[in-house]
Design goal:
The chain has helices spanning about 5-10, 45-55; strands spanning about 15, 20. A hairpin with a 2-residue loop joins strand 1 and strand 2 (about 20). The chain is α+β, with helices and mostly antiparallel strands. It has one domain. It is about 25% helix and about 10% strand. It is elongated and about 50 Å long.
């Protein structure tokens, strides 16, 4: 076991947020804001592609 591994074991364990199951306890930071939407609030193909990449990382 490497240093810190025992402390972080729960980080990669599955869990629940209420009734919603999660694969791990890693959160994607909400501070990551893009300017890939239209001025009137609609999503663009570029923002959709960005969101798909983020979703594929496994982070919440």
């Amino acid at each position: 076991m490497r240093p810190g591994e025992a402390k972080l074991a729960q980080l990669f364990a599955s869990g629940n947020i209420g009734k919603f199951p999660t694969k791990n306890r890693i959160k994607y930071g909400a501070c990551c804001v893009s300017n890939y939407n239209t001025r009137d609030g609609f999503i663009t193909p570029r923002e959709l592609a960005r969101t798909k990449v983020i979703a594929g990382t496994g982070c919440g």
